[in-house]
Design a protein that fits this description.
44% of the residues lie in helices and 12% in strands. It is α+β, with helices and mostly antiparallel strands.
Length: 338
């Protein structure tokens, strides 16, 4: 970026950098930078995307200006089928290849050495903290869904992934991760490999994984919903089989999501009930958790407490099947919980 003085159009004061200028506008004139630029630098009109689509662009505090394009529309400037403003070398925000390389070199230097490690660690902490926000995750999820729901945008993304440039970029990243030991054989030390191996052996002995494990997953057809539903364990399969045989309409396909906070970590999670009743006029949740709810872990206690509270608040009956759902057990279970 070219260094220049910032002159206040309101009072004529001169400032050597954008930070001092922003502070002056806020303290002296009680106006933020965005409002100032729209009024005095853009003739009171909010700037729109440079591709000509007419959508208003966002303010960039980093570059101290409005962005030229909305995300994804900068590619349109070289598209002969797209009308509107074309980015030329006369554009005040245009950067020559030399300027771009100079900026890139400055960034590379900043991320080198011990100082670079501190910067990366600081950024990682901010990203992880942001990712814990339920609102942020929801916003990201909705944005991705909107993007992929647009056939034009989806086609562009898929096409971009098949370009030689994209493949070369991914290849360079892969080689760098291999060299740094993040991927590949170097990523696993003899100690970590032994730890993982011992853990796997213990899981097999306890019957949690392997051919004898109780928790076998499968897709199973549910005649009550007329579609395949995913069973997360053999207990769920046994429960659904019994319900089908005895015409007790239930389903795993529902939109109930119950949030709970793990007090040990402070993180927010979601739990999804196993089955709900499809019987008209009935609001019932069935959990086939077995040993899960006998586990005394903090997370399981919080999950159980939150689920029970949610059921009470939403007027649902909540039943836990805490033994293997054999036919004999389920006959007695449904008889006692009519």
């Amino acid at each position: 970026m070219i260094e220049k003085d910032f002159i206040c159009e309101i009072c004529g004061a001169v400032f050597k950098n954008s930070r001092a200028f922003s502070s002056h506008l806020h303290r002296k004139h009680k106006v933020n930078v965005k409002e100032y630029f729209v009024k005095y630098m853009c003739d009171g009109v909010q700037p729109t995307c440079g591709c000509g689509c007419g959508v208003e662009t966002k303010w960039s505090s980093t570059h101290f200006r409005f962005r030229r394009f909305i995300p994804g529309h900068n590619a349109r400037i070289n598209d002969p089928n797209t009308s509107g403003h074309q980015w030329t070398t006369e554009d005040p925000y245009h950067l020559t290849p030399e300027q771009r390389e100079k900026n890139a070199e400055s960034v590379r230097k900043a991320y080198q050495g011990e100082n670079g490690k501190k910067i990366k660690k600081k950024i990682s902490k901010k990203i992880l903290k942001l990712a814990e926000s339920e609102e942020y995750r929801k916003k990201i999820s909705e944005g991705i869904k909107r993007s992929w729901a647009d056939p034009e945008m989806r086609a562009k993304r898929m096409a971009a992934r098949n370009t030689p440039e994209y493949k070369e970029k991914r290849s360079k990243i892969a080689y760098r991760l291999l060299e740094e030991g993040v991927w590949g054989v170097g990523a696993y030390t003899e100690e970590s490999h032994k730890k993982l191996s011992d853990h796997a052996c213990q899981m097999i002995e306890e019957g949690k994984i392997g051919p004898q494990a109780n928790h076998k997953t499968e897709w199973k057809y549910n005649p009550f919903t007329d579609k395949e539903e995913y069973m997360h364990s053999s207990w769920e399969t046994m429960f659904l089989d019994f319900c089908i045989k005895n015409n007790i309409p239930v389903t795993k396909s529902h939109d109930i999501r119950i949030s709970y906070v793990n007090s040990a970590t402070g993180k927010t999670h979601q739990t999804i009930p196993d089955f709900i009743s499809l019987e008209e006029g009935e609001k019932i949740i069935y959990e086939t958790k077995g040993k899960f709810f006998k586990d005394n872990s903090v997370q399981n206690k919080e999950k159980l407490r939150s689920t029970i509270q949610w059921a009470e608040e939403n007027e649902y009956n909540y039943f836990i099947i805490d033994e293997k759902p054999t036919e004999e057990y389920l006959v007695e279970f449904f008889f006692n919980n009519k």
